[in-house]
Amino acid sequence: MEALQFSGCKGRLLWAALCQNSFAFGTRRFSGTSLASRLCSPWLRSCKTKPGSLPIIQDGSCLKHPGAKRLASNSSFNIPPSAEFVARPVGVCSMFRLPTQRSTEGLDVAFVGVPLDTGTSNRPGARFGPRHIRAESAMVRAFNPSTGADPYHSLMVADIGDVHVNLYDLKDSCRQIREAFRKIIAGGCIPLTMGGDHTITYPILQAIADKHGPVGLVHVDAHTDTGDQALGEKIYHGTPFRRCVDEGLLDCKRVVQIGIRGSSYSSSPYKYGRDQGFRIVLAEDCWMKSLVPLMAEVRKQMGEKPVYISFDIDGIDPAYAPGTGTPEIAGLTPAQALEIIRGCQGLNIVGGDLVEVAPVYDASGNTALLGANLLFEMLCVLPGVKTI
Ligand SMILES: [Mn+2]
What we know:
Arginase, Chain A, 2 domains, about 15% strand, globular, binds manganese (II) ion, Agmatinase (putative), guanidinobutyrase activity
C-alpha cells in the first residue's frame, strides 16, 4: 500500500533515525520482510561499524545487559523489545514497539491506523486516536498470562503505519480506506485497526466482505450505528452498519451488538437491527454481571464462519474511557470488555478495529491505554495464537 507511516521519508535520513533508535527495532530479526532490510541494508552495515554510532542489535553482542541474549534468541518472529532491557520511551513510536514496514509482506497480522474523524457527530478528535494508542501501547508487554496467549511467538506481526485519508471529503476517505484494506488483506493478513471514528468500519467491511463474503460481527458500542442518515448524509459515524446491511456485507443472523444504551431519536431505536436479525444486548442487561455466559452464546451464534470484531471505546463507561466523542453514561466496565474479547477466542476472526478514541478529552491518556490493551487482547484471540 502507498499510504503508510514512513512513505516519503528519505531513506538515509530514516536510517539515521532508526540507528539512533536501534534498540526498539533491532531486537530480533531483520528478515526480508522487515523495515530494516527492505529500506537500506548497505547503510545498515555501515551503521553497525561506524565509530560512535549505536549498533543495530542482531546477535545481542552489542548489549551489555546480562539479559541481552534473551533479546537475541533465534526467533523468526517480530518480538517487541522488553522494557526489562530497552527503556519504554526508546524508539520510533510504533504499536507495541513492533517493527514497522510499508507493506503486509510476510505478515500474519498488521496493526494499521486510520486517522479520520470527519464523520463525528459531536466532539471531534478521533483523528489523533492512532498516535495516542501507539504511544500508550508501550506499556503493554508481550505475553498474556491471564489467558496463556503468546501472540508474538505464534504470528508475524508488525505496524504498517496509517492509511491516507482525505479530511475534507468523507466519501473520498471511504474510497481510500476501502482500497487500502483490499491490499492489506489480499495476501491473507489480518488487520487490527486503530481508529478514527466509526465511519471507517464501513469501507473496511466492504474490503473484508469482498474477500470473505458476508461476515459475522461482534460489535461493542454504546450505539447501534444503524442510523439511515443525518443532515442529509448517508455516511457518517452513526450509519456504518446500516450501509453494511444495505450492501449485504454482514451475515445478519451472526451480528451481536453489546453495550447499547442512551437516549434515542425514536421510541423504538432497536427495531431496525432486530428486524435484520441482529442480537442487541443492552448495557443494562450487562450491568453487574459476568459476560462469560453471554459470550458462550455468541460463540454458538458465530459458528465457524468469518467474524469481524468492531469495538467502539464508547461501549465502555465514560468513567473509564472519557476520551471519546459521543459518551453515554452507565456503560460496560473494562473487565467486561476483556470478557467479551477473550470470549471470542476460537472464532474465525478475520479482522478487528478499536475506534473512537479521542485523546484530547482524557488528559490522563487512560482511554488510549485502554484501547491499546483491548487491541492486544484482540491479537491474543486471533486464529493461530498459541497458548501456554
Ligand atoms: Mn460506534
